[in-house]
């Protein structure tokens, strides 16, 4: 209770850590000489102490207070350890203070840093009356405010740590030096201390390390199924092996070290391997983890399921081959109930069975067609009495079907009557035109094969020294629009298809071309009847008519088509090669009406600048067989027009176009005069004759 102290050359201590280590801390001496005391903090421990009677303690505090009161100095009662305080002790301490005049009580906790500053500031205000009076806050209310302040400071500090610390390999000394200038770090250290700040840093680093390990683990587990597929793709290798034997089998594989790495220290996530970014190989001890064991079991199950599905596919194919209900052309809907059972549905989707069934049907149909073709050859006498270039009448077709009807090879195509009739028509055409183009063997025809072999073995003179090669990947395909009204286009398309091979190929001069037909009979301004579609680029148009109305329809459609593409960069309709053909029914080949239609057709052809084909020259009689040779000529002319358009599009002028065409042929001389271009025949001819690839005879110039 002394109010004057002598403190010469004594050091000030701030915490017990300084005892014995004074040289490690800032040294600050107490004031020299006598030190006056201005006030007292009377501290009362309100926690439950060992072998301590609080009533006796309170008596000692009362006696001490009486001594302090005699000094006339301000006194503040400070209740300490309130974080562990006993409610009765706190109540008794307050009761003691109430018995004294103007004695203030502050509830504190040094451990929680609650109201510690408040105790000193309260005493300072009592000493210095000019200062504002401090508001005394009960412990629990102050603790709540303190907790909120600490929580806010902690959130800011953790944000600072997450922004600065990005790697789990960071060390506390380096990081703390970086964070010292930041107010977030300073506030939290002031409230909670350096040790708690370090603890939060270590927790963050550990969290980063666990996240890094988890990323590596997910990467390894994602790679493990690929490794198992590569090393043990067969079920028989591992189906009955234990885990230990399966691991030994993996180690014995030649590509084992491509997928796995065996570490000297385990487990892998506790070694430096977690930081080896250059290695993506799977640590072999990872196979001992539950997640890897599940993936191994999943691999086994996948192999077993694949084997079972393969067995189901094989059983289904065997069922198809042995079932008497599966015949050529029978739809899947009709055959499904006879060939499917519950086991099939358990293992595979119906779409898989439909795909297998479709392939099996194709084999059945191809075999049935081949057998039927042999049947037609065996009954060749049935076709001798037909007129040349004529379709068989209904009566004759009835006779043919009656004779062949008892044959099993005829009955096999019962579900494909349209294709069977088409095979009969093709066979009739072959009987009267036995050429390589009409041969039932299609591409396997010996004559066609010989030409192909000769063409591939021997090089033509012009091809030895190509001047301007003009590759055209689309030259082996002909897209033909057939324009006609009242069924004319569809009828002609069907007759042309009857002349094609089974895969819609047509032979022109020994070469196979893919023929795509687009019959149009409606308004060409509608998208469904347009000449050109995203998947169909026409190379020519064959226009059919048999009356004034159908001729008017043709003219109208051509004009509409040209108008719709007018002004477009790809104005294909304006350059499209056209051929106009008059078709008539058999027996209606004369008379004024026919002559009038011919004259009108010739006029329209002149107007449209296209070729006119009369019935006698075109062989396009409605209801008659088409003369294949003449159809081939039409398609060949179309093919030549297509090539010439390519030549004109790739050269700069008429002379260059003609020279390119001449170099492309052997001794064929082509003259291309552009409309409205004032160029003479001699100016075009001379460069051609001077071309090395073209060496005409002395009389060739006159012929040209």
From TrEMBL:
Q: Which residues form a coiled coil?
A: 293-320
Q: Name one GO cellular component term.
A: cytosol
Q: Does the keyword Coiled coil apply?
A: yes
Ranges for domain PG1 pseudoGTPase = 472-647
The family database entries (InterPro entries) matched by this protein are listed as: FF_domain (IPR002713), FF_domain_sf (IPR036517), FF_RHG35_4th (IPR057284), P-loop_NTPase (IPR027417), pG1 (IPR039007), Rho-GAP_domain (IPR051978), RhoGAP-FF1 (IPR032835), RhoGAP_pG1_pG2 (IPR045786)
What GO terms in the biological process aspect are recorded for it? Answer: regulation of axonogenesis; regulation of cell size; Rho protein signal transduction
**An example molecular function term from Gene Ontology annotations:** GTP binding
Q: Where is the PG2 pseudoGTPase domain?
A: 668-704
Q: Where in the cell is it found?
A: Cell projection; Cytoplasm; Endomembrane system
Q: Where is the FF domain?
A: 150-207, 248-302, 309-363, 365-430
Which keywords describe this protein according to UniProt? Cell projection, Coiled coil, Cytoplasm, GTPase activation, Nucleotide-binding, Repeat
PANTHER family documented for this protein: RHO GTPASE-ACTIVATING PROTEIN 190, RHO GTPASE-ACTIVATING PROTEIN 35
Designated name of the protein: RHG35 protein
Source species? Myiagra hebetior
